[in-house]
Amino acid sequence: MKIGLVGCVKTKRATGAPARDLYTSTLFTGRRRYVEESSDRWFVLSALHGLVRDDEWLEPYDETLNDQSAESKRRWAGKVLADLDALGLDFRATTFEIHAGNEYRSFGLVDGLRTRGAAVEVPAAHLGQGEQLAFYGGRSVDAEPSDMSPSLTPSSSSSPRGSYQPLGHHLSAVDGARVVLSFTEIERILGRTLPASARKHRAWWSNERSGSHSHARSWMDAGWHVAVVDFNAGRVEFDKGGR
User: Fold this and answer.
1) 170-185, pLDDT tens digit by residue?
2) Domain limits, CATH 3.40.50, in the chain
3) What CA–CA distance (Å, rounded) separates 35 from 37?
């Protein structure tokens, strides 16, 4: 199971609404669109309320973690973890995809999830505010290259193969006969998100050059083959020359 966690933002409606509709900034709506496509279920990380279901009714509030002490942030993270514990999840079979700033992640939340055995992904961890707006803005997680935001469209080609060419370039520069890349690392290399099918179906990673698998040419032309895909851990093992 994949669970999305989306951080709250300052910009809100003037009246109460379900949590998914209360926050109105471009960044939040982009993050919401992302997790609605990438995750099985998702929650809001509210600075005031902690873990909130996306359909839970909330009134507007003025609370942020940014100006709170480190101890207050740790207490907040502990509350969120306790709320997640109460859901009765099998953490070892769960991946948490976090779309929130460092103030929400780095005071015990990520460490607490990993201690419980969960996998954690932060797709936009190293992006600045403007880069995040481009990353989330106006495109589907499962979009083909022609549907991408212009700022993220690779310049090498508008074809599927061309859009994955940065992965081939990256692998060409790797020394050794084996490399393991997480889905998040691959997305960082590509400058775009992987389609949802890449996170769900082994067939997407088939070492085939033709038909709908033309993207595989990006790693095959570089002399690599996909050997193992671990969906639970969110990573792919490439072997030089295949086997």
Assistant:
1) 888 887 788 899 998 8
2) 2-121
3) 5
